[in-house]
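[job 4417] fold queue: 2 targets
>>> target A
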Amino acid sequence: MVRCSLVFLLATLVLLNSCVSRKKLTYLQYLDKTEKFVAEGEIGRTSVTPNAYKILPYDNLYIRVITPDPEWSALFNIMPVGAGGTITEESVALFGYPVDLEGYIEIPFVGKIEAGGKTLAEVKSELDSIFRNYLTEAAITIRLVNNYVSVIGEVSRPGRYLLTKDRVNVFEALALAGDMNAFGSRNNVKLIRPSPYGPVIKEFSLEDRSIMTSEFYYIMPNDIIYAMPLNRKSFEINASVWTMLLNTITSALGVIAFFRTL
């Protein structure tokens, strides 16, 4: 009887360890009762405004100067506009303006322009002022070429994804990777963000809806989101070992019981 109880207990433990509560898989909960003043209709008024990205060394900028005269346009563009057919992502990266270690880019016939530590809007404003000395009519376009987010860990499709808009939040980034899988910890997500002083690592919970008021709700270009695994994953990986152990114990107890009946 004691042996049967032991087998039943082991089977119960295996079953419990293989289950995940619904709470651990749910986003945006009210984890702190004091935060319930954030009512459903007031979420937008309390959410944080995304910061503008500031250019870092080794970034790559896509800059195009468009004028009514194609010859003038070609003069200031590394890759002539409209030449060679469709402009691809690879060609944009190849013919972009890399930011050097001191934070400068170099534009033909203009010279070095400081871009590091500035937003794209600030660099565009400065370029507008500079090109007025050369051209009476010019339209300047500037974009960040290396505008990616990397999503790794316990997601359906880990990878590096191109961001096609400026205002992207952490849930949209996870959606690009197919969302977290059943092993992903919503309560322990790491974000690795580049900075002028080196990578910054932050941890936060997606279970708590206060993330919507956090500075990490909106991602930055070249952020890395690491979906940490739940503790149960190690158990699931070794599930075959546990199963074999349980079967061995059950078989042994069956043999012992058989011989005792003789």
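>>> target B
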Amino acid sequence: MAEAARNTLSKVPEVTLGFWIIKILATTLGETGGDTVSMTLDLGYLIGTAIFLSILLVLVVAQIAAKEFRPFLYWSTIVASTTVGTTLADFADRSLGIGYLGGSSILLIGLMAVLASWYWSQGTVAVETVSTPRVEAFYWTAITVSQTLGTALGDWVADAGLGYEGGALLFGAGLALIAAAYFRTNISRVALFWAAFILTRPLGATVGDFLDKPLDQGGLALSRPIASAVLGALIIALILILPQKAGNHPRTQEAA
């Protein structure tokens, strides 16, 4: 028997600079969008979480059912996961009284557990292998937990004294270090991806809070619905402009 290599397209996009730009905008939209529902519309964190979680579940089912990578479906699911992360983290940190440190610690343990289960099941947590329903379930679970963790981290850092601008600079610096490690070291690319994916969320959270929080809280007091609409329009424009194609990974099959 001989092994013949072939490429199997995954259902997530290639990880390029365009991917990270859209991801940061999506996480910022998740913050302003989540705050629009829970604060501006005054529906509260629990109802906001229920609304966005319902939307996320529908989109994840559609994503898993899709036969190929669909840019708008994929990024809509990412945005839904960021809004769930915003309202869920706020509910845990504030309504349940767990606090930013407690919430961040619990979510970090949860994310490590999801990634460990994924690795134990598949032998890898590389996103290029997201091409089966089982792996997609692991992927979207990890994505949602990481988005929630990122929200809690962003709020914790901002509340610790750095403020929204300081928090954004801190997380931006962290992403710069990860980029340097990518180009100058041999650190696992999979580990660097997940580190960057997690850090983009608190970056978006602090930027989103800086845009829409009141002036006396260190924000710009911009309208949350308008900021969300502008961010959504930018994301749509970038999806149309920037190359969007499925990632691929080598797989082998036995041939006689």
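[job 4417] complete. Note on B: Residues 2-243 form one domain.
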